[in-house]
Amino acid sequence: MKKRFKARKKIPILFLKTIILLIIMVFSFGLAFKFFYNKIHIKLDNEKFIDYLVHDALGTYDLGDLTSLNSTEFLLKYSLGIEKSTNLVSKEVTSEIEEPKMEETENVNQEPIVYIYNTHQSEGYKTNFLESFNINNTVLIGSYILKEYLNDLGINSVVEEGKIADILAQNNWKYGYSYRASRQLLDKAKKAQPSLKYFIDFHRDSSPYTATATEIEGEKYARVLFVVGLEHDNYEANLAEAEKINEKIKKINVSLSRGIMQKQGPGVNGVYNQDNSKYTFLIEVGGQYNTIEEINNTLKMLAKVLHEYITEVENEGQKT
Question: Residue 107: pLDDT band by 50, 70, 90 thresholds?
Answer without folding.
Answer: very low
